[in-house]
Design a protein that fits this description.
Length: 350
């Protein structure tokens, strides 16, 4: 299926991605698609390991690392076809999402609001008092931006996003639908048989080039700041508790949950459903596999797995050992029976 149209010659694409054309430089393609779904009017791509599979494609042209037998006659040779395809897709997406600057008359804008240039603010958006929004931001319909919030330039807030009071977003931040930034941290004190709410008076800081998926919650700190560092990418359905500090260029997959005051280093990778207990630290470049639960500090530059988290090789050994437990249990029962029989014989002989 072709969702967004393009119209480029192979020569234009090669110039854009830094590739070399083999075949007809003047061939015009009108879209990009997968090897299986591409049509003769479209371009596709194949890394080295997929070149054999690419022989059956109907694509009119391919981005590939080298020529090979059985491929279409029109190729663009480039070192990293997947990266080149990503650059091309980014341009298509940018054109598809382009919006004319507009402040819809149905948007609600408070007092003392600083608005940058070339903004799109959709219908039903609510921008409270003393908010500052930088240039070229897109604020989609039904978003809420609380009092005193500061947005940098080129930010995108999709429909239903909530940014609570006094939070701060850097430049080029993207937040997908129905995510909440700055909700109250889960702070309660059990007093006299009841739960006393502790006000959460801190804020959230989202640094430059962060992207946050749909339906995430990032809680404000109790006193200081919850921070998501530069370049970090967060998948859908992720929860960060109050006072969490996330370093630069970290990746979090879906359903990650970090309890309050957790510290995550730079370039950490957290797989789906990873959890971390209160106040622990996970070091730079650590990688936690899907479903891992971290209950203590984890040094950086290692891979981890399991519940609780241990080095990945140890976790795999434990998993393999667990698969043998039913058989080992039977063997153990047989040995216990044998010991009882031997003990009985010894007693009879004595």
């Amino acid at each position: 299926m072709r969702f967004f149209r393009m119209r480029c010659t192979l020569a234009e694409i090669a110039a854009q991605i830094g590739g070399r054309v083999v075949g007809d430089e003047t061939l015009v393609v009108t879209g990009i698609n997968s090897l299986e779904a591409a049509t003769p009017e479209q371009i596709s791509f194949a890394e080295e390991k997929f070149l054999e599979r690419a022989q059956g494609t109907r694509a009119g042209a391919l981005l590939v690392p080298r020529p090979a037998a059985g491929l279409p006659s029109n190729l663009i040779i480039c070192a990293q076809p997947f990266r080149a395809a990503g650059l091309l897709m980014r341009e298509i997406d940018r054109e598809a999402q382009a919006l004319e600057p507009l402040i819809d008359e149905r948007a609600v804008i408070g007092k003392d609001v600083g608005l940058g240039r070339k903004l799109y603010i959709g219908a039903g958006a609510i921008i409270c008092d003393q908010v500052t929004i930088g240039d070229n931001c897109r604020i989609y319909p039904q978003t809420f931006i609380g009092k005193g919030v500061r947005l940098g330039c080129d930010c995108v807030l999709y429909p239903g996003v909530v940014i609570r009071e006094n939070c701060q977003l850097g430049n080029r931040v993207i937040i997908h639908p129905n995510t909440v930034i700055g909700s109250d941290g889960f702070g309660f004190l059990q007093v006299g048989g009841g739960n006393l709410k502790i006000p959460q008076i801190g804020r959230v800081i989202i640094e430059d080039d962060v992207e946050i998926g749909a339906l995430c919650t990032i809680n404000r700190a109790a006193l200081d700041e919850t921070v998501v560092g530069r370049g970090t990418k967060i998948d859908d359905h992720v929860h960060l508790g109050h006072g969490v500090k996330v370093g630069h260029e970290t990746i979090m997959c879906a359903q990650v949950g970090l309890a309050g005051s957790v510290r995550i280093g730079n370039q950490v990778m957290l797989g789906p459903r990873v959890g971390a207990a209160n106040s622990i630290t996970i070091g730079d470049r650590a990688r936690l596999m899907a479903g891992t639960s971290a209950a203590r500090d984890l040094p950086g530059d290692q891979d981890y797995g399991g519940i609780p988290a241990v080095p990945l090789k140890q976790s795999l050994r434990q998993l393999m050992a667990a698969t043998h437990l039913p058989k080992d249990r039977g063997r153990l029962a047989a040995l216990e029976q044998r010991v009882k029989e031997l003990e009985k014989r010894l007693q009879e002989q004595s």
